[in-house]
Design goal:
The structure holds two protein chains of two kinds. Chain A is an alpha+beta fold. Chain A contains two helices and three strands. In chain B, helix 2 links the parallel strand 1 and strand 2. Classes of the chains: A alpha+beta, B alpha+beta.
Amino acid sequence: MPSASELKERIEAALPGANVAVEDLTGGGDHFRAEIVSDRFDGLSRIEQHKLVYDVFGAEVGGPIHALSIKTSTPEGTR
Amino acid sequence: MTNPEIREFIQNAIGENPVMLFMKGTPHAPACGFSARTSACLNALGVQYSALDILPDPRIREELSGISGWPTIPQLFVEGELVGGCDIVTEMYESGELAEKLGVEQPEGDEPEPEPVQRQQAPIGLENRLD
C-alpha cells in the first residue's frame, strides 16, 4: 500500500527541484492529494501539467492509488 | 458490445456532444464525490451537457483512458477536447475560466453543492441533461 511519503519521494525523483506536498486524505493509503510547485510546468497547459504527475504512477492511478487529486503551479504563478 | 464498438461509441460521444462528461453514476445520482463535484460545476453554470456513466462496463473506462491518455474519472470534454478531471474543472470553475470556455455567465455566490451520492447502475447510454 503506497504512503504519502512514498508518493512525495517518487514525484520529487521524477521532477527534480519540485516542491512537493502529499496528503493521505483518508488515512487509508488510497486517496491522496498532491500539491506540486515546479518550474517544469512552465508553459504547459493544466492537462499537460497533471499528466506529468500521473505519468509518475502509470497504471497505479486507478488501481492501488484509487484517487490522486493534483494541484500544480510554477514558482512564478498558479498556471 | 466488443471493445472496438465501445471505443467507437465513446469517440462518437466525444465528437457529437459539445460538452461531454464521463463520470461514475449520473448527474442526478453521482456515484463518486469527484464526479459529483464536477457535474455540480456544470450544473451551477446552467450549461447543457451530456453525461455517460462509465460504471456499467469496465471496458468503457479502459477504452476512454486509451483515447484520452487520462487515467482517472471524471473526464470532461468540450468541443472534442479533454478539459480535465475534477481538480482542473473545479479550478477553472472557481477562476471563471470554465464559464468563459463554455460561453456562459459565471454565477454569483457560493460554490456548487455536490448532489447526494447514491450508487446506481444504468445500462450504457447517454443522458442529456436539459433542465
